[in-house]
Specification:
Blueprint: H1 9-19, H2 27-37, H3 43-55, E1 60-62, E2 70-72, E3 79-83, E4 89-92, H4 98-106, E5 118-121, H5 124-132
Parallel strand pairs: 3-5
Antiparallel strand pairs: 1-2, 3-4
Helix pairs in contact: 1-2, 1-3, 2-3
């Protein structure tokens, strides 16, 4: 059953905050910033609204092996880079490889709709720090 969700001040604030960010914040980061606008909001409310926004397709929840889930306001398909030194999560433009879905589909009887790829290494900021040390 597809239920229509009524708008809420908390959810709208969370979504507006995420739309200003490109660093893929965690729920904790969202919570600390939203508290400046809505002081009595709970961490649980932030988690519930992030889950709902993700379920509605308004944001993307990103789970990696490197720490807690992160949230992305960009819902169009794109890949990400994870820095193993500082943990930053960076959007990768132009890296989608549609041929991978075609190749995977050859040996799979189901329907593949999407792929998500993570690249791992050292981000430019950490590389500069390492070079100057």
């Amino acid at each position: 059953m597809n239920t229509v969700r009524k708008r809420s001040k908390q959810r709208d604030s969370i979504q507006r905050f995420l739309e200003t960010r490109r660093d893929h914040p965690t729920a904790e980061t969202v919570y600390h910033h939203i508290r400046e606008e809505i002081p009595n909001i709970s961490l649980g409310t932030v988690y519930r609204n992030l889950a709902l926004l993700s379920e509605m397709g308004e944001i993307r929840k990103i789970s990696t092996d490197e720490g807690p889930d992160r949230f992305d306001p960009i819902t169009t398909p794109h890949d990400h880079f994870v820095c193993r030194q500082c943990g930053s999560l960076i959007d990768m433009e132009g890296t989608r490889a549609p041929h991978l879905i075609k190749e995977a589909q050859k040996g799979f009887e189901g329907q593949i709709d999407d792929q998500r790829t993570f690249f791992y290494g050292t981000c430019p900021t950490c590389m500069k720090k390492d070079q100057s040390a």
